[in-house]
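Anyone? Bumping this.
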Amino acid sequence: MDKYQPKNFEEKWYQRWEQANRFAPSGDGTPFSIAIPPPNVTGTLHMGHAFQHSLVDSLIRYRRMKGNNTLWQMGTDHAGIATQLIVTEQLAAEKIKPSDLGREKFVGKIWEWKEKSGNTISEQLRRLGASLNWETERFTLDEGLSRAVLEVFVSLYEEGLIYRGKRLVNWDPVLKTSISDLEVASDEEEGHLWHLRYPLADNPKEFVVVATTRPETMLGDTAIAVHPEDPRYKALVGKSILLPLTERTIPIISDSYVDQEFGSGCVKITPAHDFNDYDMGKRHGLEIINIFNEDASINEQAPKKYWGLDRYEAREIILKDLEDMGMIEKVEAHMLSVPRGERSGVIIEPYLSNQWFVKTKPLAEPAIKKVEEGEIEFIPKNYENTFFVWMRDIQDWCISRQQWWGHRIPAWYDNEGKVYVGRDEEEVRHNNHLKDDFFLSQDEDVLDTWFSSSLWTFSTLGWPDRTIELKTFHPTDVMVTGHDIISFWVSRMIMMALKFVEEVPFKKVYVTGMVTDANGQKQSKSKGNGLDPLDIIDGISLDDLIVKRTTNLLQPKMAERIAQNTKREFPNGIQTYGTDALRFTFYSIATRSRTIRFDMNRVEGYQHFCNKLWNAANFVFINTIEGEIGNGVSNNDVIDKWIVSELNHTIQLVDQAMDRYRFDLAAKAIYEFVWDELCDWYLELVKPILNNPEIDNQLVQTKRFTLITVLEQTLRLAHPFLPFVTEELWQKLPGKIRGEGKTIMSQPYPSLNQTLIDPSAKLDITWIKEVVTGTRNIRGEMDIPHSTPIPIIFANGSDMDKSRLYEFQSLLEYLIKPKEIQWSESTDKQPPSSTHLVGEMQLLVPLKGLINKELEIIRLDKEIERKINDKSRTAKKLGNNNFISKAPLEVVNKEREKLIEIDSALTKLKEQRLKIASL
RNA sequence: AGGAAUGUAGCUCAGUUGGUUAGAGCAUCGCCUCGACAAGGCGAGGGUCGUCGGUUCGAAUCCGACCAUUCCUACCA
């Protein structure tokens, strides 16, 4: 058999599965379904996706093999702003602006781009082995889902849960659109606090000083505010000031929102450009003056001098003008949190505009209730708090975007600006009895992408039609996603599903940790520390990796640093690991922690594991290919009973782990079974029988049968986690063992057979392990090579030891490679030896010609010291009357027995040391 | 500012309702080509479980305070 080379077979198997339509739901088992969090259609797979989808795929494959009628619903998201941005940038390279093309042509360009690059992510998912049902793949802008969006919009509007209004929203002046609170990220940045002097209207020689971080907004000030209790300013309340640079006089008001301690204790109020000021403006009936255009340049509400200036140009000039007038008291350095648009990276402006909103409170209440009642369960549970905190203080959701790519808002306006909402223009005219020549124009805006995503679990299943799919697979069983998406998406799906299909969208929410780089840094394009999962699967050279990380950077000056960091982290690039190794890594690191540092060393370790499994299978094939494989009629010996018992124990562990979404524990159980039990012990224990021509053929056949059936079950057990290598190996099994099945992925999952758990077999094997490990310890410590046979004496053993030696002597001879094994009733008159204790029994390896006396004394001293420590710990416990009287009897007895054992061992070791020392 | 999470070996992480000597992988150090596997085998070293207190016969585990890191929410102009 060839070496383990994942690239030789991984893609092949995926193609065969897909061609044979293995990913479609089938059978009449209990339905089990998961909806994929729709990736951005024009995006690429990042490590977080690969991680989540690997977890989901194991759940899906596990359930499918368990006989569930299983659906993993595939689909992608149109990602409005992100996609429009990409295409806009591409056109910019050809010096074309979207406005040059007009709406229709521009949207056409995006569709072209979608057709071209839309399957990148699908191909990546295939490489991951994701057993998604491609047949029913959906896209948020396709006909069916668009129908669902219309239906929901119209019905929420009719119920008064969608409304249009002029509000202050987060405005991206580069993208020229509103964005939701969630798409704004605030970070601390260095700035300044300018203290400006505003002269009093009735006494322009006197000033009130206000502090601001955004001096340019002063052009839109409509009041200044002080705290009602502030003695410095009490007398001024009700007076007015002359707003510099403008011709306006504005009032001084009092409001307890003002913090007396901050700045001068006096704050300028700009209702059109600050959320708090907006609220305050409403409270006091202040004028609202918007001084910005859509691109945040100064508009005609400001003095002519500043018209058309960009907000930051305007700032400089305004400051200079104020300075010239002597109106700047002082400037301080100041850290402030600056809101930036997630997509464009520019500073977001609060901006007054007409927008559409969803009234969320009435939708949130039932959603909160379902989670409280446990109908939806978050795993880990504490993420429910994140959900509750968000939902209990939920703000209305601004759903209109001033973009072209997306679901156009189904609202029409007449000449007077009256709004008509309906599924299409025809319906609007009909319902409102409007003649065909009555002027109507449709709203230019599109809906927030998350609006369509919020319908995802049911719109993908055919809603608003009551399809059989919807009936069968909704609610879905679990949603697997990152914590950053709980408020964006999870909460909104819950609200919408409850509203429109009157059931929860999923029963469980498994919140994964966030995959970071080896330094715990979030992976991102701008930091240049992101990894493409395919580069771990296929490998990539250092040069290619640097190119990949440094092209299309938003900040090109970062390129040099990114290249340096990449060189340091991956001096030799990334080698080829294959999908299975990557996947197994994901399972192993899927613990309950919220950040997961991705460590390439672990991928390497799990690649070795795949290799180990490969080679173990190879061993099995070599030993079963020629001779007869028995029929399983058991004259199983204790060794076979033991490995079957271990296998069943592992099956149990995997089931328990999967029930609790502990992918790490499932992976660990499989890893340990394959490597530590099957490879390290069972295959070794079986060799002397398989390779011995004198052994009874019946026994050899039984061994072969156990060997190959244990392998076959192990492959099935591991398949959800290692889909490719298990399929490749399973296909090499003889048909007699494999059965009629065409693929491992449709075979039944191994299930626990409690009657095969055999504790007594385990005790026997444990004894063998102890004896073998004991002699290996002596060999290892004494540097005696495996090739040198050593004489060994079993002294002072019990009847049980004796009978076990009798039973397993030939095995032990194979494993220990002794010159001979002697049995001795007592330790008297034995030659000076190196000793290892197995319970009461002593393993003796005579020193003569093999072992250095001093080395043995050192080894014994180490052992003795350990025992002395144990003894004092145990004796101390037993010397404590409180322990004796309060601890449970069995714990006390355990300690008593332990003390006896330690004492006996200690005595023997000390005797032994005396004996050696006296030589 | 409020809320949450995390802190265990050099690194990345397990450790279930408190109960043998706190485990694994990687890394380190010896020895070994023995017919599945050097992507391997065997052996060894390595930890005051963030700090301090409390509860308890007994604490990595439960409670409190503090320190450090991280995230979320709200932001003081």
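Late reply, but here is one note on the structure posted above: Chain A is about 45% helix and 20% strand.
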